[in-house]
Amino acid sequence: MKFLLVFDFDHTIIDENSDTWIVKCAPERKLPNGLRNSYQPGYWTEYMGRVFVYLGDNGVKEDEMKRTMTTIPFTAGMIDLLGFIGENKELFDCIIISDSNTVFIDWILKAADFHKVFDEVFTNPAAFSSTGYLTVEHFHAHHCAKCPKNLCKRKVLKEFLDKQLEQGVSYTQIVYIGDGGNDLCPVMFLKKNDIVMPRQGYTLEKKISQMAQSLSPVQCSVLVWSSAIDIMSYLKLLIKE
């Protein structure tokens, strides 16, 4: 009996967007208008590539970026929740599927000593170039029209579950914890016995409730959370059953 916990990262594990937080490193803590306005829907990774070039051009180094990123607050109750999961790892497999990047997530989880809670992190690969610039790449290629070019979270989840099955691991229930519009695609893949936990007041919750109103609700159960303590309460019930 094992449960799979799938977490988004920005606005779910941390209470901010890691990609917009890095702007605190920019001169005057803001980006020039031309750069800010260069974002095109579906091409966030390309936009962030330009942001990292701008930071590099302005002499922002890796250690300054790291110091800044590790000041991002965790969501209310999240430290308690991750501690609880860490103490019960025999019952929970735990993964992150995020549109952030490997460098940011790694810094933040290691600084708080939570990297061991997660079995795998699926996010855009990032690295520092020989000249000290942060570069980020697409996570994968996919054919899903609903998702941004660089990441379809449904595809990631499906491939992870297939790989686990090959190794003889199947899950009693999947618990999907997220907040954003790009979390809807994997949630649509969940089955009747699974559960989605959308963050209260965020896009994912709004989209799920719109679907219910138009009589095409998601298959899985829905439990809204505002503090990660809500999630922990649910997990405690699960393991009591």
TrEMBL record:
Q: Is Endoplasmic reticulum given among the entry's keywords?
A: no
Query: Organism's domain of life?
Result: Eukaryota
Q: Where is the active site?
A: 8 (nucleophile), 10 (proton donor)
UniProt keyword list: Hydrolase, Magnesium, Metal-binding
Residues the record lists as binding substrate: 19, 99
Point out the coiled-coil segments of this chain. none
What family name appears in the similarity comment? Belongs to the HAD-like hydrolase superfamily. PHOSPHO family.
State the name under which the record lists this protein: PHOP2 phosphatase
A Gene Ontology molecular function term for this protein is: phosphatase activity
**Cofactors (names):** Mg(2+)
- Taxonomy of the source species: Eukaryota, Metazoa, Chordata, Craniata, Vertebrata
